[in-house]
Amino acid sequence: MENAFDTNALLPVWEAIGKSNPWIAQANDPAFDRTLLKQVDDLTQLELLFQYGNWCLGQGFYYQNLCFINQVDGGDEWLTIKDDYAFESITFSRIIGDGKFTEYIDRLLNATKEQCINLTY
């Protein structure tokens, strides 16, 4: 299946969205920029990263056209961006603990922009 998104085009958009977030904008060790956004190729790896916790403010991961940027230094509060819009702040520990991580990410990937914005995914 061919992807309908261009990660190279999305990285500067995700960086701008992150920099406009009042919490992420405060990141200073290190300062937030696109170099903190790391590509993740599979859901198992992404789930393990979220389980690790203790990420610096501004650390981000992206999977396909979803980008997650940590909003709390050492915490589990992720600004969630799809394509070119931020729509949610997600804490993954409970989702993972309930065994629903893959299902949740699949719902995000399949949701329309309207469903994301209205939080009805």
Topology of this structure?
Blueprint: H1 7-20, E1 37-39, H2 43-52, E2 60-63, E3 66-70, E4 78-82, E5 85-90, H3 92-97, H4 101-110, H5 113-117
Parallel strand pairs: 1-2
Antiparallel strand pairs: 2-3, 3-4, 4-5
Entry summary:
This protein has 121 residues and is α+β, with helices and mostly antiparallel strands. The protein contains five helices and five strands.
How would you sum up this structure, described in words?
The chain has 121 residues and is of the alpha+beta class. The protein has five helices and five strands, in the order αβαββββααα. It has one domain (7-117). A five-stranded mixed β-sheet has the order 1-2-3-4-5. Strand 4 and strand 5 (85-90) form a beta hairpin. The radius of gyration is 13 Å and the shape is globular. 24% of the residues are buried. The mean pLDDT is 94.
Rough shape?
A: globular
Q: What would you report as the Rg, rounded to the nearest angstrom?
A: 13 Å
DSSP summary, beta strand count = 5
Please tell me the overall pLDDT: 94
Residue share in β-strands:
15-25%
Characterize the main sheet: 5 strands, mixed
Structural class: alpha+beta
What labels would you give this structure?
globular, 121 residues, alpha+beta, 5 helices, 37% helix, five-stranded mixed sheet
